[in-house]
Amino acid sequence: MSAPRAVVLLSGGLDSATTLAIARADGRDCYALSVDYGQRHRVELDAARRVAASLGAIEQRTMRVDTAGIGGSALTDPLIPVPETPAAGIPTTYVPARNSVFLALALGWAEVLGATEIYIGVNAIDYSGYPDCRPEFIAAFERLARLATKAGVEGRGVRICAPLIALSKAEIIRRGVALRVDYRLTTSCYQPDAAGRACGRCDSCRLRHAGFEAAGVADPTQYQA
Fold it and tell me: Cα–Cα 20 to 30 A to 29, which of 52, 78, 159, 167?
């Protein structure tokens, strides 16, 4: 009997790599979905391919969506600087409706594959405050998925799994280490240089480095000098 299929959203970052490892440990046949959405940190797409191969995904696909055409985010608009100091409120690195778009793509592929679950590495503890990383959003999208698809109305709704949502960054890293995730293959920086080295200053870099410190694990990230 074949294993249940799952679509795993895979950015190439620390959280999504750990999520893929968890899905594999859950006994799922994993189909990794990465999204080229016009992000300035495109090195993450190469990282996603490396991670998918390392963690045994059945298939890895990269789909394209032009969120740069929407604008409004430092991750897609080169005229908006990536913030390097913490600020109150939701930071400019928020990409409008990004996880709604990503989950919609994953939902379509899951329906074609006959997958029963979608795994997404959102986190609501050590995170930047993005509204589409909260448990309420995940629960709402799962309800939408039951209403919006043929599989859902026929009683075969897809479950949205967010195994990291209540974990600290240190807990995520420890879980990944236990599952033999090679974090050297991942990238988290919002503004890496041409060689793919992390800036060490953006919000994502700060959260990543603090997580390794708190976990008591050596940070394998290559930083700019």
Answer: 167
pLDDT tens digit string along 95-138?
999 999 999 999 999 999 999 999 999 998 877 789 999 999 99
Beta-bridge partners for 159: 117
In tens, the pLDDT along 145-173 reads 999 999 999 998 899 999 999 999 999 99
Instruction: Give the C-alpha separation, 81 to 211, whole Å.
Output: 24
Which domains are delineated in the chain? 5-215 (3.40.50.620)
- Pair of tokens at residue 207: 């959260």
**Helix%, strand%, coil% for the chain, nearest 5:** 40, 10, 50
d(Cα 110, Cα 108) in Å, to the nearest integer?
Answer: 5
Q: Which long-range contacts (CB under 8 A, 24 or more apart) does 138-142 make?
A: 138/162, 138/165, 141/100, 141/103
pLDDT tens digits along 72-85? 999 999 999 999 98
Let me know if 83 is exposed, middle or buried by CB neighbors in 10 A (0-12, 13-18, 19+). middle
